[in-house]
Amino acid sequence: MGDLIFANYGYCHCCEQAVRFTAADSWFRDHYICSKCGSIPRERALSWTIEKFFPAWRQATIHESSPIPRGASEKLRQHCDNYITSQYFSGVGSGTEYQGWRCEDLENLSFADNSIDLHISQDVMEHVFSPDRVFREIARTLRPGGMHIFTVPLVNKAGASEVSAERDEKGEIRHLLEPEYHGNPVSDQGALVTRRWGYDICEYIFRSSGLFTQIIHLDALEWGIRAEFIEVLVTMKPMAENNGSDSVPETAKPPKSTTGNPFNWLKKRFKK
What we know:
CATH topology: Rossmann fold
CATH architecture: 3-Layer(aba) Sandwich
Order of helices and strands: EEHEHEHEEEEHEEEEEEEHEEH
Largest sheet: 6 strands, mixed
């Protein structure tokens, strides 16, 4: 690690501790680190969003595609008894155990209808070839009132989303933009970027699945959340239309704070 260019004390929503956040590189998205759990800003933003939008996550059935061995993924693993993780392996059927992982193709999930309370994905949706199928599968498998809470770099912002790679009729990859690869936990070849998403992803999800999505943008140094492209998206499946109730689902109600005033808490923790 080089010389630090920025550091501050705060509260990490991943490890739920008072910590020191440090950055040795100006690209905070990958280099603004929690001193206790090693999380980065988008993981802390995801954890905050899960707590606020789905506070009952500890008792939920959660599926996370391509989890990360730190941050929000580690928090879910430690505190949710029914936390299911999966990776994608080409040519391996969904639901199959492979190399110590459960394989799940997001375009063809093995889960039953209405069986998952919460789908989680971190920077996955820019790597799928048929995101319309993925969003339909997520909608199919979510229970009424369930959510898909996820991160995806919205690099085009207010501009239109772009397809950067696709498969032709023979299944061969055709590059429409300069090939770009991100890290892949199960492949040294990396993960090819197939979409450069913009804010219009919300409309895309609605047209694909009929579900509404909102974009959460956080900027809070006291929680170690500041960087480019760290928006968190929340897609919610409404309660069943025929249940005769117009009440708001409990998971959609703003929860009471579980940490109190973080500034007062931090003053006590770091009091000289």
